[in-house]
Amino acid sequence: MIADPPSPPGRERPLVAAGHPAVVAAAHEVLDAGGNAFDAVVAAGFAGTVAEPALTSLAGGGFCLARTAAGEEVLVDFFVDTPGLGLASPPVPHFDEVVVNFEVATQAFHCGPGSIAVPGGLPGYLHVHRRFGRVDLGTVVAPALRLARDGVDLLPRQAGIVSLLERILLRTPEGRALFAPGGRLVAVGDRLRNPGLAEVLAELGRGGDVRFSGGPLAAALLAVTAADGLVTAGDLAAYRVVERDPLALHWQGRRVLTNPAPSFGGTLIAAALARLDGLDLGPDDPRGPAALVAVAAEVDRHRRAILAGADPVRPADPADPSILRPGRRGSARGTTHVSVWDGEGGAAAMTTSNGECSGDVIPGTGILTNNILGEDDLHPDGFHASPPGLRVASMMAPTVVVGPDGATEVVVGSGGSKRIRSAVTQVLVNVLVHGLDPRAAVEAPRAHWDVDHVEVEPGFGSGALDALAALGPVNRWPDRSVYFGGAHLVVPGLGAAGDPRRDGAASPSG
What we know:
Structural class: alpha+beta
Strand order of the largest sheet: 8-3-2-12-11-1-22
Number of strands: 22
Shape: globular
Number of domains: 2
Low-confidence stretches: 1-8, 313-332
């Protein structure tokens, strides 16, 4: 349990929600040291690489939606690029296929050096701090450094993810040293320590040469990809963090800011919210969940037109049988989110991912590399079909809602691949339409349209289940699951909630 911190003089109560109590504590430590929302979200990002190692990494990538106290609104894109710059005749990249057994299905993942994309995590954190932060970098990395050196307890949901990914995480001796230091896979309550990452963070805090664009860290990464991968020195030198205007949608009398193209998660959420403007269903109406799922299914059906900007905005008809058309199946991706409100007007929503990890560790650093080139739902034209130097698209959708008075009203985001859209949309409806408090909005049961059927958490009444069944086959889960995302929510003036599906934590809680 995280104690609610006092409000510093001249500041409202800061609010933080994230995927691990240690990550929330890291953000609050930096806020208490005089940092703002952006110092805090970067501190949380660094801490997440230790406390949520199967979900995020300095060698992954992500997005941060920043809204400053002065009203500046910027989407910082530090997701991964496709590699291969400077290769005259690119080698056939090496994939390892690992089959993972989930509760209700099996899925093949692609890992190994050939799955590693050009990383953006570290440059992204440094960019956000340099652009918007106000305390020194040593203060920002200090909580993560302490966690990496002293260790952090492995929580139940994290332990479950580590267990699912065991064959990937233990591919290499370096991975086994981190996740099976005593010869067995770490389990709930075990301490995760990462001395190599501690050294990297200490050097970073001292102002040392810690970057992927050159120097010792770049050389160590290139040693991983030299034989069977595609990442080159040219890729690392050419990588750039990009600032974009957020995608803005007027909805329910508010402005919803989210992730713009070339990523597609925010665009698809905006399309769903626009369609929901035509639906008038109260929080207790049993048709409500089916209406949300019908909208999601219609968005899937019109996905190509929506992403091309050619799809008309119109309400969905839950009884329309044409929604039952197949799409592309999603998976349980390694993604996490942090939401921060600093009490002074600054808000940061940051979602990051390492895929499922390639199973490789950059030598001497404890940094796990991503496997985003091996995620089939991000490469619909086939693996390695895109030329080098392109930003890979993503479902991640950090989101900030601005109220009619111009004040930040909601900060939210989620992990969960295709379920990101469902989780964010349903939480926004719960807060802004149904008026639920943050905890109730996050903990409410979720339903997700998956290709040709509905995935449903426990907690829906019989009327809602009957309405969902009218849309197609219903797969009822016995318990809440990481499958349905991890939505970490902040509502300034009310409170915050971390998603229990992902060991989420918040302070102060709402």
